[in-house]
């Protein structure tokens, strides 16, 4: 005879997963950010002309930390939804979009590849959108937790388009002093 888990048991299982997934996603995000200096620490980025909508540099790590926590919580919900239809595909797409997310910082801040970064952020938005839909089918709340992430990716894409438009030679820009460019 099969017994159903109680709400308390399900909640405990979700919390056990969240204790793993939230720090893991945060750690991966911080690891990606550490591959190339950004913000005030990046002379190339400081030399770029930015649009009026560009937030202050301190806002980016704050927003990304919050978004990574939301991603980790949504991931825990879907992992915990055993036997849910579409769970495997949702998890696969989550991994793909997270890999694209983690590749963006070194590509933009390290390699200074603005055009490639635009293409990457478009692919990231598309895979994150599909992930959001699939997560929502597995657990509605998990899908809603990804909505702020989608909004931020769209905003980041608009900021990146502004940088691309305002700095046509940015990929060749080498500011005076120490360079922060990575070679790929």
Automatic annotation (TrEMBL):
Cellular component GO terms, alphabetical: membrane
Cell location: Membrane
Major localisation: membrane
UniProt protein name: TspO and MBR related proteins
Superkingdom as given in the UniProt entry: Bacteria
Residues spanning the membrane: 12-38, 58-79, 91-109, 115-135, 142-161
Swiss-Prot/TrEMBL GO biological process terms: tetrapyrrole metabolic process
Taxonomic source organism: Sphingomonas guangdongensis
Cited PANTHER family: PERIPHERAL-TYPE BENZODIAZEPINE RECEPTOR (PTHR10057), TRANSLOCATOR PROTEIN (PTHR10057:SF0)
Keywords: Membrane, Transmembrane, Transmembrane helix
CDD domains assigned to the protein according to its UniProt record, in alphabetical order: TSPO_MBR (cd15904)
Similarity field: Belongs to the TspO/BZRP family.
Membrane topology, record value: Multi-pass membrane protein
Matches recorded under InterPro entries: TspO/MBR-related_sf, TspO_MBR
């Amino acid at each position: 005879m099969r017994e159903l888990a109680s709400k308390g048991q399900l909640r405990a299982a979700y919390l056990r997963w969240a204790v793993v997934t939230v720090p893991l996603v945060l750690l991966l995000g911080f690891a990606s950010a550490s591959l190339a200096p950004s913000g005030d620490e990046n002379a190339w980025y400081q030399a770029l002309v930015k649009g009026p909508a560009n937030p202050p540099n301190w806002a980016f790590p704050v927003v990304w930390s919050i978004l990574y926590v939301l991603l980790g919580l949504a991931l825990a919900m879907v992992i915990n939804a055993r036997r849910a239809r579409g769970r495997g595909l949702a998890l696969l797409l989550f991994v793909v979009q997270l890999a694209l997310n983690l590749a963006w910082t070194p590509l933009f801040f390290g390699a200074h590849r603005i055009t490639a970064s635009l293409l990457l952020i478009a692919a990231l938005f598309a895979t994150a959108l599909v992930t959001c839909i699939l997560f929502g089918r597995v657990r509605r709340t998990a899908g809603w937790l990804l909505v702020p992430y989608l909004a931020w990716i769209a905003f980041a894409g608009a900021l990146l388009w502004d940088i691309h438009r305002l700095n046509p030679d940015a990929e060749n820009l080498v500011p005076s002093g120490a360079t922060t460019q990575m070679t790929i």
